[in-house]
Amino acid sequence: MRGGVASPAPGSSPTGIAPSAPRSRTARSRRRRGGGWAPYGFLLPGFVVYAVFLLYPLGRAVQISLYDWDGLSLATFVGLANYADVVTDPALRDAFAHALVLIFFFSVLPLGIGLVLAALLTRARVRGMAFFRTVVFLPQVIAMVVVAVAWRQIYAPDGQLNTALRAVGLDALTRTWLGDYTLTLPAVGFIGTWVSTGLVTVLLMAGMARIPGELYEAATLDGAGPVRTFLSITVPSVRAEVVVALTLTIIAALKTFDLIYVTTSGGPGTSTTVPSYEVYRRAFELGEVGSAAAVAVVLTALIFLINVGVNRIGERER
Amino acid sequence: MNPSPRRTRIAAGTIAIAALALAACTPGSGDGGETDDATSAPSGEVSTDVAAMGEQTLVVWDQEVRGGQAEQMERLNEAFEAEYENVSIDRVTQSNDDLTATLRLALTGDDAPDVTQANNSRSQMGQFVSAGQIISLDPYAEAYGWADRFSESVLQNTSYSADGVTFGEGELFGLPQVGEVVGVYYSKAKLDELGLEVPQTWADFEEQLGTIAEAGETPLVLGNLDQWPALHVFGPVQGAFVDPEEVRALGFGNAGASWTTEENLEAATTIADWAEAGYFNEGFNGADYDAVWQSFTEGTGVYLIGGSWLAADIEAAMGEDVGFFAPPPVEEGAGRVTTGGIGIPFAITSQAENPDLAAAYIDFITSEEAMAILAETGNMPVVETADHMPEAGLQADIYGAYADVTENGALLPYLDWATPTMGDTLGQALQGLLDGQIDAQQFADTVETDYAEFVAANE
Question: What are the start and end residues of every segment in region (Disordered) (chain B) (predicted)?
Answer without folding.
Answer: 28-47
